[in-house]
Design brief:
The complex is a heterotetramer of chains A (415), B (286), C (313) and D (248).
Chain A (H helix, E strand, L loop, with lengths): L1 H10 L4 H7 L9 E7 L6 H17 L3 E2 L2 E9 L4 H14 L4 E3 L4 H13 L4 E2 L16 E2 L7 H12 L5 E6 L3 H17 L2 E6 L9 H4 L8 E5 L4 H11 L7 E4 L6 H7 L7 E4 L8 H14 L5 H19 L7 H10 L1 E5 L2 E5 L5 E13 L2 E13 L7 H6 L16
Helix pairs in contact in A: 1-13, 3-11, 3-12, 4-5, 6-7, 9-10
Chain B lengths: L1 H31 L6 H17 L4 H24 L6 H23 L15 E4 L2 E4 H23 L1 H11 L1 H6 L4 H27 L5 H16 L4 H21 L9 H10 L11
Antiparallel strand pairs in B: 1-2
Helix pairs in contact in B: 1-5, 1-6, 1-8, 1-9, 1-10, 2-3, 2-4, 2-8, 2-9, 3-8, 5-6, 9-10
Chain D lengths: L6 E10 L2 E11 L4 E5 L6 H9 L6 E6 L2 E2 L5 H6 L2 E3 L12 H13 L13 H13 L15 H14 L4 E5 L7 H13 L5 E5 L3 H7 L2 E6 L2 E7 H6 L1 H9 L1
Parallel strand pairs in D: 3-8, 3-9, 6-7, 7-8
Antiparallel strand pairs in D: 1-2, 1-4, 4-5, 9-10
Helix pairs in contact in D: 3-4, 3-5, 4-5
Classes of the chains: A alpha/beta (415), B mainly alpha (286), C mainly alpha (313), D alpha/beta (248).
């Protein structure tokens, strides 16, 4: 309620320029203090390092300014351990006086600090894809310009059913919340449209080898959806080809199964794999071209899922803080401005927010193509203004349990 | 039927890989009573070094041996400078090797970054082999063959050479070995070299299947532990049988009882430790 | 003389701890102090096993984890009040230690280490996988700390004081155990199990009681942990957590009261404070393991004590 | 005499791998008797003690204490039944005081080792009885000293005090005189003599002067077997004794 009325006020008069004129002028000399929670050590470091690279590349491109203010980026390494994430968050908020937070990387980290950031009214721009953050556990001081776990899966399921005419599919995913939510979202839309998920395989996150799982995959399938994180998508795909299944069954990947971080390593095996994401480095908008060039120049890598997030967040922040005339002292105003803004020109394309703080934006269906020894996730279809609730009614959607290992129930499994 | 055949093949291929991983761990554990928690780190380091060597277009098998030798040399240095002083202090050894594994993991991350680094299998072994109507990865069969060859080589080394005789004597009874004039310190260096060499070599050979990535060490170390606990400490046949056993438990276990995938290897380990703490082939630990 | 000196040392330390909330510039530092002292309770509990019983465990975080999960689950999902959740958590943690004890005490030395490690991994796997109960990798969050005896623990200073009080209780209990008949018997089974048997002692039972009491205090640490972070996930009972506790004990000095506390403080400072300034703090942590074990095999506290003695003489 | 033997070992056998450590050993020791076990090194004397004490179980045969079978019992149950033992190699708790060592022995037979709160030092009755036991072996003055600061002879006597404090009915003494000076031997010998006859003693000892004078009957072991058994005079006179010792 509070949010809505605040937004109402903003819309009905108090524009950004009015604020700067009437309010206390922001002291432009003070840097904007951004707490950046990432993982730079331990097994999750790969994504965390890319996250930081993405942020640094964007800042470099934008002369280290967000909303007209100099940025002081305070990077904290959480080691991917929630208890440490919490301590580091406290450090950023209480000791270093962060104006806002970006991150953290993993869903369980984000959940571990959610209550704290809420209690401290700390505007937090989320990156971790977990459905709780913007659905049942939606927080007031939270906005996620990237996507929920299921957002791209919904689209992909529809694409598989409608465009690829798939009817029988299997899902395979890492056995943890992110994997579950991606597959469950896929399963729901695919089966609601009339398709059947006939097999569901959930290898442990730290599976030493996928051979045993690949041997179990049915052969009479139209496609396989992969909900993998980290390097698992790459390892699975390689094993899939080793077992001679490559090219026989269409592979379809969620947000990270064919991430840029592993795309080149997968080599020729990757060609033809379809995936869904809110971003892809081959997008033609000028912001993205500049960003990709910067990433290539500085880190010799295309930005993927982890690197693009901070750049999108930064653009959203830039728009909101510009609108506020650089003033970020009021967390309520900051977060409501962020959420009520429509930002036309992030690297992923236009971004606006729903009532729960989740971005509504384009979801790209991509297909790996190969030219000159380099793999590219090429966009084959764009779904515009995709909500995290897909075409479902948000209120109805939220009456159901959050996507999990056991919900929705897979009714068509064949054994 | 096909399920059983292919899972059996999977089990054997994985067992081969596990043998390369755990033979060195078992040797060091058995002879020196050092639970080398850095073994996973050495395996991972081997994989990364191997990937770099392959990038310099070294032939695969040469890269494997060079990487193994480099990791082996590192092992000798670590043993001589840090671990030897800790003889008999198991807790100290546990912590030092754990510290080493932290450092190896962090420096690998620094040197090779966080993205997975693939290792290409030798070209001829890449395509799948077709057996009675279904495909099986050729390279995995090669790994199985290589592991069996390595087991044979190690067996020859242990049973047919003077070094092997000394190692066996040391595993059986360290005091006895010392009293018959074996220079235990040099023997330990040799064993540590061999153990670390096998870890590094295993890392490269396992590379085309596993690839090198941060966390590979932490994924592999528990497997080595389970193999050695099941097979018995310091026993080569134990490591071989333990490896195949773990391969079988893992492949059939995760297929038949998917809900237990996260604990499928540790439950048998607990059972073995409780029922027969020396493992299948091990002798009593002091 | 030394007794007096050590008592004076303790008194000074306690006063310093009590003053901390007034000295530290912000709740953030008080929070770190709280984290350190919470984990110090875990280290102290492990030291009952190591210092007195001579049994190094690599599964000790399991009791912390089980009890922390129990607090979080009963509070969050069953709506229990703290005075019901806490005894339940302590009982469940202690029960876990009973089961672990029955299985692990069949072996000694490395075998014991391996069984505890395997059991710890099984618990981790269960926490990770048993999503209905534990929330899987997402863990369980709690909204707020309770108000106990009119003491609102959501206030950082209040919570810190409670943690100090629990730590002090733990220290006294361990001191008492150390000087009690059971403590003597426990050390007897550590040094000369065969002799103890020949003197008519039930060595297994003595070890078991020592093991379970270590588990009990580990569960106490778990309750504090749950309220401290208001979050429990699988990492609370992971191998790194167990190994860290072991390191704290060895770093500070096994078998001393001050050692595990000092170890907990040093490790917490490296992980939280030093890691803000040093990118390769993980390497630094590894180096700390190696240097301490090589240079001060008995740990910081005995090491510094003997160094000070040497200087005085 | 139909009296029940204090210790009765019947047809005991134990093999380690291929080596027979105890071969069909049968020994009966009557209450109050002083029995000496002799035999060359490796004859199986300590192995026999270990089986009586329950350190490991025999492959076959039986061991009875006052007619009660204890072949398969835990060591601590045997101790509760009245078995005591001193060790050939000193295995004391070196950092603790003599008093503390004896107190541990008392806790073993009397229970009360489960108290985890009250200080052991504060158990005055226990400490008084420990001091009493130490007084019996002439160590009252050094009762508060750590074992590591006592002489070898004093430690031997402490061993004895710990065993005696438990008021055993059958006491196994494993070379109580080994490594002692002549003076110390005399002291220990006197202590042994003073042990009342309600304690049955089985002793392994190489110091024949003391041991032969002390013993009522002697059992000669070789290669794990009982070669002969008899009174002092019988054993000394028997040619097999010379054979065993000289032939070795």
């Amino acid at each position: 309620m509070f949010q809505l009325s605040r937004r109402g006020i903003l819309k009905t008069g108090l524009g950004a320029s009015a604020l700067t004129l009437t309010g206390i002028p922001a002291r432009a000399a003070d840097p904007l203090r951004i707490g950046f929670l990432t993982v730079k050590t331990g097994p999750l470091a790969a994504g965390g390092i890319q996250m930081e690279q993405g942020m640094l590349a964007w800042l470099k491109l934008n002369k280290n300014k967000i909303g007209g203010r100099d940025v002081e980026l305070m990077v904290a390494d959480t080691n991917g351990v929630p208890a440490t994430t919490r301590t580091k968050t406290q450090e950023l908020v209480e000791r270093q006086g962060a104006n806002l937070l970006i991150g953290p990387l993993a869903a369980f980290e984000a959940l571990a600090v959610a209550d704290y950031t809420e209690a401290h009214k700390m505007p937090t721009l989320g990156l971790a894809a977990f459905d709780e953050g913007t659905q049942k556990g939606a927080q007031k001081y939270f906005a996620r310009p990237t996507s929920s776990a299921g957002q791209a899966s919904h689209v992909l399921a529809a694409y598989c059913y409608t465009e690829l005419k798939m009817r029988r599919m299997a899902v395979i995913a890492d056995d943890f919340a992110y994997g579950h939510q991606q597959t469950s979202a896929f399963l729901r839309v695919f089966e609601d449209m009339g398709g059947k998920i006939v097999q569901k395989i959930l290898p442990p996150l730290n599976a030493p080898d996928y051979g045993t799982y690949i041997s179990q995959i049915k052969t009479n399938l139209d496609g396989i959806f992969m909900g993998f994180a980290g390097s698992n998508g790459f390892r699975f795909t390689k094993a899939f080809f080793e077992y001679g299944l490559g090219g026989k069954i269409q592979l379809v990947g969620g947000l990270t199964a064919m991430d840029e971080a592993i795309l080149q390593q997968t080599g020729e095996d990757a060609v033809g794999i379809i995936s869904g994401n809110f971003y892809t480095p081959s997008l033609e908008n000028p912001e993205n071209k500049a960003f990709v060039a910067q990433m290539n120049a500085d880190y010799k890598a295309d930005p993927g899922y982890y690197a693009c997030g901070p750049a999108i967040v930064a653009a959203v922040l830039d728009a909101a803080i510009t609108k506020l005339g650089g003033k970020v002292d009021d967390p309520d105003l900051l977060i409501s401005t962020i959420r009520s803004n429509t930002v036309p020109n992030t690297i992923r394309g236009p971004v606006k927010f729903d009532a729960y703080g989740q971005a509504i934006g384009n979801i790209y269906v991509r297909k790996v193509t190969r030219a000159g020894g380099k793999n590219t996730n090429t966009v084959i279809k764009t779904y515009e203004n995709v909500s995290q609730f897909w075409t479902y009614d948000p209120a109805e959607f939220l009456k159901n349990p959050t996507y999990s290992r056991d919900w929705p129930v897979a009714k068509n499994l064949e054994n | 039927m096909q399920f059983w055949i292919i899972q059996t093949l999977n089990s054997l291929a994985m067992g081969g890989l596990l043998f390369l991983l755990s033979a060195g761990f078992s040797l060091i554990f058995g002879l020196m009573r050092i639970p080398n928690l850095a073994h996973g780190g050495l395996f991972m380091l081997g994989a990364y070094v191997g990937a770099t060597l392959l990038g310099q277009s070294l032939p695969f098998w040469l890269a494997a041996i060079v990487a193994g030798a480099l990791v082996g040399a590192l092992g000798v240095i670590l043993e001589g400078t840090l671990l030897r002083r800790m003889a008999g202090n198991e807790q100290g050894q546990v912590l030092i090797t754990l510290g080493i594994s932290f450092i190896i993991a962090d420096l690998c991350l620094l040197s090779w970054g966080g993205d997975p680094v693939p290792l290409a299998a030798p070209r001829g072994l890449r395509p799948p082999v077709f057996l009675a109507g279904f495909a099986f990865p050729g390279y995995r069969l090669a790994v199985l063959g290589f592991a069996l060859a390595a087991a044979l080589g190690l067996w020859m080394l242990l049973e047919r050479t003077r070094l092997g005789a000394m190692i066996r004597a040391g595993v059986d009874d360290r005091e006895m070995a010392r009293s018959v004039g074996i220079r235990v310190s040099r023997l330990f260096s040799a064993v540590f070299f061999l153990g670390a060499f096998l870890a590094g070599l295993g890392g490269v050979i396992g590379g085309p299947i596993l690839s090198a990535y941060p966390g590979l060490d932490a994924d592999m170390l528990p497997l080595a532990l389970v193999v050695v606990i099941l097979g018995g400490v310091g026993s080569l046949p134990g490591a071989l049988v333990g490896s195949f056993l773990v391969g079988i438990i893992y492949n059939f276990g995760t297929a038949l009882f998917p809900d237990f995938a996260y604990v499928i290897l540790f439950l048998p380990m607990v059972v073995m430790l409780v029922v027969k703490p020396t493992g299948l082939f091990g002798r009593a630990m002091r | 003389m030394t007794r007096f000196a050590s008592m004076r040392g303790w008194a000074l330390t306690l006063i310093a701890l009590a003053m901390l909330p007034f000295i530290l510039p912000s709740d953030y530092y008080l929070g770190i102090a709280t984290h350190a002292l919470v984990i110090a309770v875990l280290a102290l509990s492990l030291d009952i096993l190591i210092g007195q019983g001579g049994m190094s465990s690599l599964g000790h975080a399991a009791y912390l984890g089980v009890s922390a999960y129990a607090v979080a689950w009963t509070t969050r999902n069953a709506g229990w009040p703290a005075y019901a959740a806490i005894p339940f958590a302590l009982a469940l943690g202690t029960l876990t230690a009973c089961v672990f004890g029955v299985l692990a005490l069949r072996a000694r030395g490395l075998g014991f280490l391996m069984i505890t490690l395997a059991l710890g991994q099984v618990m981790w796997g269960a926490a990770y996988r048993w999503v209905d109960l534990t929330g899987g990798d997402n863990g369980i969050r709690m909204q707020a700390r309770p108000v106990l005896l009119g003491f609102d623990l959501n206030n950082a200073t209040n919570f810190y004081i409670i943690v100090c009080a629990v730590l002090l209780t733990t220290l006294i209990a361990i001191y008492k155990l150390d000087h009690s008949a059971l403590g003597a018997c426990l050390r007897g089974t550590r040094d000369q199990p065969r002799r103890m048997r020949m003197l008519g002692h039930d060595v297994w039972k003595i070890r078991f009681v020592g093991f379970v009491s270590a588990g009990f205090w580990g569960a106490v640490a778990g309750v504090l942990y749950a309220y401290d972070y208001l979050y429990v996930g699988p990492s609370a009972l992971s191998l790194p957590q167990s190994a860290e506790a072991l390191l704290m004990v060895v770093l500070g000095g096994a078998g001393t009261l001050a050692g595990p506390v000092a170890g907990a403080i040093v490790i917490t400072v490296i992980k939280t404070v030093v890691s803000s300034y040093v990118d390769r703090w993980y390497t630094l942590l590894g180096l700390t393991f190696i240097i301490v074990v090589s240079v001060m095999p008995k740990g910081l506290v005995p090491g510094i004590r003997s160094w000070m003695k040497g200087n005085r003489a | 005499m139909s009296e029940i033997p204090a210790l009765e070992i019947a047809s005991l056998n134990k093999r380690f791998g291929g080596l027979a450590a105890t071969r069909n050993v049968s020994v009966r020791v009557m209450p109050g008797e002083r029995r000496l076990l002799i035999g060359p090194n490796g004859a199986g004397k300590t192995t026999l003690f270990n089986q009586i004490a329950g350190d490991f179980l025999p492959d076959s045969g039986s061991i009875k204490l006052f007619g009660q079978d204890m072949t398969r019992l835990d060591t601590r149950h045997r101790v509760r039944m009245g078995l005591g033992r001193t060790y050939q190699i000193l295995t004391l708790f070196p950092h603790d005081t003599l008093r503390h060592n004896v107190a541990l022995a008392l806790l073993g037979t009397e229970g009360g080792g489960w108290s985890f709160w009250s200080a052991l030092k504060g158990r005055h009755d226990l400490m008084a009885r420990a001091d009493e036991a130490l007084g019996q072996v002439g160590l009252a003055e050094v009762a508060g000293r750590p074992v590591s600061q006592t002489s070898y002879g004093e430690r031997r006597r402490l061993e004895l005090a710990m065993a005696l404090a438990q008021k055993p009915k059958v006491l196994l003494l494993d070379e109580p005189l080994a490594g002692l000076s002549a003076d110390e031997r005399e002291t220990v010998r006197l202590l042994l003599e003073q042990i009342p006859r309600d304690v049955t003693i089985v002793m392994i000892e190489h110091d024949m002067d003391v041991a032969l004078a002390f013993a009522d009957r002697i059992t000669l072991l070789n290669f794990g077997e009982v070669v002969l058994e008899g009174t002092r005079a019988e054993v000394i006179a028997d040619p097999r004794t010379r054979e065993v010792y000289l032939g070795h």
